[in-house]
Amino acid sequence: MERRSFIKSAGLLTGGALLSDIQSFAGYQAPVIKIGVVGCGDRGKGMMHVIQGLKDKFRITAICDVLDFRIDEARKITKEAPVTAYKDYHKLMEDGNVDAVVVAVPLNMHYPVAEATLQAGKHLYLEKTMTFDIPQALKLVELSKNRPKQIIQIGHQYRYSPLYYKVKDIIANGVLGKVNQIDCRWEKRNLAEAGTKPVARAPDQLEDV
Ligand SMILES: NC(=O)c1ccc[n+]([C@@H]2O[C@H](COP(=O)([O-])OP(=O)(O)OC[C@H]3O[C@@H](n4cnc5c(N)ncnc54)[C@H](O)[C@@H]3O)[C@@H](O)[C@H]2O)c1
C-alpha cells in the first residue's frame, strides 16, 4: 500500500468529508484498509465506532484484548462483520487479514505493541502518549527508518479534524484581526448533559476532561 493512500485514509478517521471529496475529485478509490484493534477499552471502542462509520475506507477484521468482557463489548460494535478475536497481541500480528493496527492499550504497553506491529510489516496508528519514555520514542523512530512504506500515525484527539485546520486558516488569514485575549475551554460533558446548550460554570467548578 502506498504511503499517500494510507495517509489519506488514516486522516479520514476524523476528516472523512474533506478527504472523500478529494478522492472522488481525483476519481481514485483507495482500497479498503483492514484494521486490527489492540486494546478495546474506552479509546479503542471509541475508535472502532469512528472506523465503523467509514466502511468504504476501513474494515475492522481483528480485535485484541486481555479481558473477555472487552472482547464482548468490541464484538457488539462490529456486529454483523466477522472479526477474529485475540487475547495475545502477538497472534494478531500474524494475521494476514490485518493491514494496519490501532494501538489503544495502556501507556506502559504502547512501545511493545507498536514494535510488534512494525516488525509484522503493518501500518501503525498509535494512541497518544506515543511512548512511556524518551528512549522508547527514539527506538520507535529508529524502527521506522528502515520501513519507509509503513505508516506511523500518533493519535491525538481532534488533531486531524478539518474543523481545526479551518479555524487555524481563519486565524492565519487575519479574519479575527489582532487577537488580544484567548479564553479557551472544553465543555464537552456539560454539553452532553444539557443537550445542545452550554452550561455556564464558575472557574472553580470546572474539571479536567
Ligand atoms: N487520542 C486521545 O486523545 C486519547 C484519548 C483517550 C485515551 N487515549 C489513550 O488511549 C490509550 C487507552 O486508553 P483507554 O482510556 O482506552 O484505557 P482503557 O483502560 O479503557 O483501555 C485499555 C484496554 O487495553 C487492554 N489491554 C491492556 N493490556 C493489553 C495487552 N497486553 N493486550 C491487549 N489489550 C490490553 C485493557 O484490558 C483495556 O481494555 C491510553 O494510552 C490513552 O492515553 C488517547
Ligand set = nicotinamide-adenine-dinucleotide
| Shape, per Cα inertia axes | globular
Provide the low-confidence segments as ranges: 1-23
Helix content: 40-55%
Task: Write a structural description.
The chain has a six-stranded parallel sheet with strand order 3-2-1-4-5-6, sandwiched between helices. It is globular, with a radius of gyration of 19 Å. The longest helix is centred in the first third of the chain and has 24 residues, at 3-26. 43% of the residues lie in helices and 14% in strands. The protein has one domain (3-155): NAD(P)-binding Rossmann-like Domain (Rossmann fold, 3-Layer(aba) Sandwich). Mean pLDDT is 83; it is low at 1-23. Strand 2 (58-64), helix 3 and strand 3 (84-86) form a beta-alpha-beta unit. The chain is α/β, with parallel strands linked by helices and 209 residues long. Nicotinamide-adenine-dinucleotide (NAD) binds at residues 38-44, 64-67, 70, 89, 104-107, 109, 127-129, 155-157. The site of nicotinamide-adenine-dinucleotide has 24 residues, from helix 2.
